[in-house]
Amino acid sequence: MQVDTTLLLSVLAQLASPDVILMLFVGVLGGIFLGALPGLSATMGIALLIPVTFGMQPVAAMVLLAAIYASAVYGGSITAILIHTPGTPASAATAMDGYQMTLRGEGLKALGTSTICSVIGGIVSVVALLLLAPPLAQISLRFSAPEYFLIAIFGLTIIGSLSSGAMVKGLSAGLLGLLISLVGVDVMTAYPRFTFGVGELESGISLIPAMIGLFSISQVMIQAEKLHGAKDLTPAPELVGHLFPSRAEWRRLRGTISRSSIIGVLVGCLPGAGGDVASWVAYNEAKRSSKNPENYGKGEIEGLAAAETANNAVTGGAMIPLLTLGIPGSAATAVMLGGLYIHGLQPGHELFTVNAHIVYAIIVGLLLANILMGIVGLALAKQVVKVASVPFAILAPIIVVLSVVGSYTINNSMFDVYVMVAFGLLGYLMRKTGFATAAIVLAMILGAMAEIGFRQSLVMSKGNLLGYYFDRPFSLLIMGLILLALVSPLLIRWKRNRAQHALSRS
């Protein structure tokens, strides 16, 4: 499918219409707002606004949804950086180093880095969507149950790097996350397991309430404990300095941004993976290739850049299989698929031929949304950063209220609020005892994918599981990546020790 220059010029003219421009601004501002609020995600925003688009022209409607999708992923980083409350699951990795930068007075730089890296990742993903959609979609189409199982295992290798030196505690937290992911109806037999007769558990533990509890409520409890009994409260550190990283820092970030952009696009092409998986994978790869991996989780700007570049690079990547094959690459694009059908648009070859002016308008609209998102984000950075200066005694009730509202509105169920509270207590106890809460979230995300892929592989292999896996080229490729992921930390440590030994001898 070759891109016609004349067609692109006509699409740009179409995007210049007042209604499309208005929807572009509304989508970007609304998406940032939705993403920044705990529990409110791009998926929720798109689902709520699809009925609003019924009376719109297809281009204006889909540009609105695409703008919300891109900017909501970025918006989640704002609260993750400033108050350690990821607005979306894709921003959980951002909170690891972004919040630590805020604590040492570099919140403004963290926001600027997040904004620029998000824009770069988004633009790279749109270029991939525009030029590489058909071949990348064909590759992802050839992935089946064995590949998805191995991808999940590859993601689980990250848990070891999240343990901050306490490997046993990290693996224990990951094991707990895997056990939690098993709650619900068995994927093969449809029999309830670990539900204890509670009907609400048959659909499993909802990720967003669990994540809000682990990160937001536990943070409130930790901070409240510090405030209790204190006579003189230490004011929030004044956030001063530059909005942009220095030239030396940008030189360090170039490789991380490039690598994370590619990871985000590729993960986005895989149905069901999403920005949360991409951000953790990119974060882990940045840590593995870093000269100072011990700084990660303590305010390392490379970790922040890796997570933010990758989760925004997923947006265009997830739309590749959506537009060419009708296979959504994420939960948000699954909702967008409904929006396409509502406006009479059928994904596939016809969308790129008969309705080419619409599909390319969506793609270019996503590009414009990423650029506008960067402009708005940088323009508001100095105002948004003031959130970190608000006394925590005022901020804590607001966080709790937003967390309760966000958890409730997912399924309009009080049970999700109870889940949030339970995971808040769990997160508090884990953080007090040195366990990695992020490992639970990652294992919950990947556990279901691993189980479905493995159990389907058992059926497909007809008793010869190893032979079945070794006969699949893509499975062998992912196995090699898993082996490399397990061996590379040992090799890096060996090289570091050898270099230190050589220096000591000299």
TrEMBL record:
Q: Which residues cross the membrane?
A: 20-50, 62-83, 111-136, 148-167, 173-191, 203-222, 262-283, 322-345, 357-380, 387-408, 414-430, 435-454, 474-492
Any Pfam family hit? TctA
Q: Transmembrane among the record's keywords?
A: yes
- Domain (DUF112) spans 21-442
Q: Does the keyword Membrane apply?
A: yes
- Which InterPro entries does the record associate with it? DUF112_TM
Superkingdom of origin organism = Bacteria
Ordered alphabetically, the record's keywords are: Membrane, Transmembrane, Transmembrane helix
- Protein's name in the database: DUF112 domain-containing protein
- Species of origin: Nitrincola iocasae
